[in-house]
Amino acid sequence: MTGTTVMTAEDIGRSLTRIAHEIIERNKSTDNLLLVGMHTRGVPLARRIAAILGNLGGHEVPVGTLDIRPYRDDLSRDSREDITAGTDIPGDIDGMTVILVDDVLFTGRSTRAAMDALIDRGRPRSIQLVVLVDRGHRELPIRADYVGKNIPSARHEDIKVRLRETDGMEKVVIRKNTHDIEMETSPEKFLVREEKQ
Length: 197
Description:
The protein is of the alpha/beta class. The chain has six helices and eight strands, in the order βαβαββαβββαβαα.
């Protein structure tokens, strides 16, 4: 993968360990915690944090998975899939402290969709947000409670998280998005292309 590596496997591991300690410090224990990973890379991150919390707290912390596609605001109602697709939340979330886990926080729209999906399933005591990378450019008033690394970025840059469970490699890379750069510098090319289609 081309681009500049901004987090190595060791950096990712250290960040997740630190985040697990911060979760215990904030919540005083691992009781009544439920970690929910957002598909796709939030899921293995949630499982890793849960494993660390289990070692620190002495008991297993449950992990769920969440598919936010039915709640995204960039899809038409007709194209949204069944709300249970790809979602597996163990037990009842009422009264639980739900810790939502994602790989990258960008505009905040995915997080908003995830909160909508969770609230449709019950009334948690609180929802906290973990992200491995916060890249800025928020469009909604959302912030993470736990951040692995803040990586300031331009909108024409992509930040790609690669994990061994999903990608067979472990790193975070920042690279230029050439499509967005071309769109900014030569929008007429894309207008002509769209008219021809």
